[in-house]
Specification:
CATH class: Alpha Beta
Order of helices and strands: HEEEEEEEHEH
Largest sheet: 5 strands, antiparallel
Number of helices: 3
Oligomer: single chain
Strand content: 25-35%
Strand order of the largest sheet: 1-2-3-6-7
Helix content: 10-25%
Radius of gyration: 15 Å
Shape: globular
Structural class: alpha+beta
Number of strands: 8
Length: 175
């Protein structure tokens, strides 16, 4: 499975709305899912959206696991989420540190819903409904934003909520 090039902030596709996936069983979509899983793993990410590899599809991978960028992340199997929707969300919003593979070396303290009820189609074409909380809910919301041309910097309450990766590792992670 090839590792794909991750486009960077400034590329117009990061600011565009992605198109629905019509045929999940199309070999190009199935290959894209496998390549996104390989890419997010190699990049030490916990999620990646198709627009981040210059593919305008409503498809992303949620792949939480401890790694260099997120040492305290919970472990889960990489999951392809196709044509996702947020059905409901908690009233409680919590702030947490986020980074983005398309915006390297920067972190932001981003407000997100603590819990969300979601729906998506899996890679086998089956409709899934779940409730996500905490860090995994944060990943979903971050990747979902990518499908709508939104990056985490757009969600910040203040520019004072930005920190470099180096300072994040020193001050927040403690490494």
């Amino acid at each position: 499975m090839p590792v794909l090039e991750i486009i960077q902030l400034g590329h117009p596709l990061l600011r565009s709305s992605a198109q629905l996936v019509d045929n999940i069983q199309d070999q190009n979509i199935q290959n894209l899912i496998d390549n996104l899983i390989a890419t997010v793993g190699q990049a030490n990410g916990v999620g990646i959206a198709a627009p981040q590899v210059a593919e305008s599809y409503q498809l992303f991978i949620v792949a939480s696991r401890p790694n260099l960028r997120y040492p305290n992340a919970p472990t889960m199997q990489p999951t392809a989420m196709i044509n996702p929707q947020v059905l409901a969300h908690s009233s409680e919003v919590v702030k947490g540190w986020e980074g983005c593979l398309s915006i390297p070396e920067i972190r932001g303290y981003v407000p997100r819903y603590e819990a969300i009820e979601i729906e998506y189609t899996d890679r086998n074409g089956k409709l899934q409904k779940q409730e996500l909380t905490d860090f995994v809910a944060r990943i979903f919301q971050h990747e979902y934003d990518h499908l709508n041309g939104i990056v985490f910097l757009d969600r910040l309450e203040s520019t004072h909520d930005i920190i470099t990766e180096q300072e994040y590792q020193k001050r927040i992670v403690g490494t």
